[in-house]
Design goal:
By secondary structure, the protein is of the alpha/beta class. The chain has 14 helices and eleven strands.
Length: about 375
């Protein structure tokens, strides 16, 4: 062997030994961050969606309250959630009002307490100290007016106050004042002193140039009462209720030669309202609660709500991304005019006025 060949062989042997030494030294495994199921966001609490799903599956259940399966397609949303993640959903008092949801949470044993609330915005604001901050991944898509800056509550879906009517019995109303004409038997969706939909119906009727005034709404229904045009829902041919309720009813006979129900949102009286989500600070299944919120604000679930005639909070973002269910969106009642949302002070003042005057004026 030549001197050069021997040198090359020696060098190769040294490199091989070095490589063998490196391969025999185990690398330090990368440490994953500890899971915090009560964190205020996905990244800081779980790191990835997969780890959130794992944590939620270990909890195995999710407690909801006040969410009927036939409400804005929530049954499909629940089934899809369980199908994706294998997590059982328990629903307490599906038809509970927002205020009742809070009462249930106060009285429930720890393991039966709601994990998540579905609330009117006024109730959410009044009970914000009960909620755990959590910003969903799609947080930036939710309009600022629909979310608490601290992440304690955030709008998921909503709609506009509308007039549903039987076109076989009355003409299409163009304004709330048209309901005073003979032939209309008009109902609210409950007692406006107790039911949010009925209260907002009165307030929609009160709008003038975008400004609400409870007195105007009470006066209109007082005139209906006096003329005999104010009716119970079971006997009414006209119902003032959210568009997703009236639109769902209209869809049942939409293909008939003579539809039994149609819906209109009066021009100049477009009152909007949204239901907001909030996670219970004392949620017995905190990871499942956060997974539910992530799913509810996903493209898939927002479009499922849209199929239930609700207007998803991320609707504009879905359209910009090109993932909006356009067929479902086309089924929504047309809106002409700028939507109005009551501020908390406006709603409080209106409720005070109705408490003092509704029973005397309307009964």
């Amino acid at each position: 062997m030549t001197i050069r060949a021997a040198a090359v062989a020696a060098t190769l042997a040294l490199l091989a030994a070095a490589a063998a030494g490196c391969s025999s030294s185990p690398r330090e495994p990368k440490k994953e961050q500890p899971i915090d199921p009560r964190a205020a966001g996905l990244a800081e609490g779980f790191g990835t969606m997969d780890r959130l799903v794992e944590a939620a599956r270990r909890e195995g259940a999710l407690n909801l309250v006040g969410v009927p399966r036939d409400w804005v397609n929530f049954g499909a949303v629940m089934d899809r959630f369980t199908g994706h993640y294998g997590i059982r959903i328990n629903v307490a008092e599906p038809k509970a009002s927002s205020r009742r949801e809070i009462e249930i949470a106060k009285a429930a044993p720890p393991q039966d307490a709601p994990d998540v609330f579905d609330l009117g915005m006024d109730v959410a604001v009044a009970n914000a100290e009960r909620f755990a901050p959590y910003r969903v991944t799609a947080w930036q898509d939710v309009p600022d007016a629909l979310k608490d800056s601290g992440g304690r509550w955030y709008g998921a879906y909503g709609g506009y106050m509308s007039i549903g009517y039987d076109p076989r019995k009355v003409k299409a109303p163009r304004a709330f004042a048209d309901l005073l004409a003979p032939g209309y038997a008009v109902a609210l969706a409950g007692d406006p002193l107790r039911t949010a939909a009925a209260f907002n119906g009165v307030m929609a009727a009160s709008l003038q140039n975008g400004t609400p005034e409870a007195k105007r709404g009470v006066e209109l229904f007082a005139k209906l009462k006096k003329s005999g045009g104010f009716s119970k829902p079971s006997k009414a041919n006209t119902l003032v209720d959210w568009d997703y309720v009236n639109a769902a009813k209209a869809a049942q006979t939409a293909g008939d030669d003579t539809p039994a129900w149609k819906v209109v949102i009066p021009k100049g009286a477009v009152l909007a309202s949204y239901y907001v989500q909030a996670i219970n600070k004392k949620a017995p299944h905190p990871a499942a609660a956060r997974l539910w919120e992530e799913f509810l604000f996903s493209d898939e679930a927002q479009n499922l709500l849209l199929k239930g005639f609700a207007r998803p909070a991320r609707m504009e973002a879905l359209e910009m991304k090109g993932v909006l269910d356009r067929q479902a969106a086309a089924r929504l009642p047309a809106v002409t005019g700028r939507p109005v949302m009551l501020t908390i002070p406006q709603a409080d003042a209106a409720k005070t006025y109705l408490k003092a005057n509704w029973t005397t004026a309307v009964g």
